[in-house]
Amino acid sequence: MSRSSKYPEQFRKDAVELVRSSDRPLRQVARDLGVNHETLRNWVKIAERGQAKPSDAASAASEDELRALRKRVAELELEKEILRKAAAYFAKEMGR
């Protein structure tokens, strides 16, 4: 959310989860939490949009991170193979 809220993000997430998991009406959950029902309804709508389709920026960032991690794994596997061969070579030399 770009604008600040008087409610912490974790509180908003917990409130949305409570609405989803409870069989109580949204208005009652909002009343119990001391939140305006329209505010809570907006949080639920925002959360549903967030789950339906991740933002393009977040998706691109995830793909970039995945690409970087795969590259790092390939580098580490190559290093491991080099070290394995070196260890075998030196084990043979020491065995003479």
From TrEMBL:
InterPro entries: Homeodomain-like_sf, RD_transcriptional_regulator, Transposase_8
Keyword Lyase appears in the UniProt entry: no
A Gene Ontology biological process term: DNA transposition
Entry protein name: Transposase
UniProt keywords, alphabetically: Coiled coil
A Pfam family annotated for this UniProt entry: HTH_Tnp_1
GO-annotated molecular function: DNA binding; transposase activity
PANTHER family: PROTEIN DISTAL ANTENNA
Parts forming coiled coils: 59-86
